[in-house]
Design a protein that fits this description.
By secondary structure, the chain is of the alpha+beta class. The protein is built from two helices and three strands, in the order E-E-H-E-H. The protein binds zinc ion. It comes from Lipingzhangella halophila.
Length: 79
């Protein structure tokens, strides 16, 4: 009996990148790079992906907390 891990793949390889907003399935158009100084070292980079519709919501969410470092077009972010 062999085990498979088809349900455990954590790779984002061929999966379409989608918006990080909960329950949003829209393709990512923006990458929001952020860091929470309380829990992350300064060189740590967290990334949220956002569609056009939720870019404002997510960037404001991070912005008001002082977490947002930069917002770049997803195409540029990948390249
Ligand atoms: Zn979205």
């Amino acid at each position: 009996m062999s085990e498979t891990d088809t349900n455990h793949t954590d790779s984002t390889g061929d999966e379409p990148a989608t918006c990080s907003r909960r329950e949003c399935q829209a393709p990512a158009a923006w990458a929001l790079v952020w860091n929470n100084p309380k829990v992350h070292t300064p060189d740590r980079r967290k990334t949220w992906l956002a569609c056009d519709e939720h870019r404002g919501y997510l960037s404001e969410f991070l912005g008001v907390r002082g977490f947002l470092l930069e917002c770049v077009p997803f195409a540029d972010f990948k390249g």
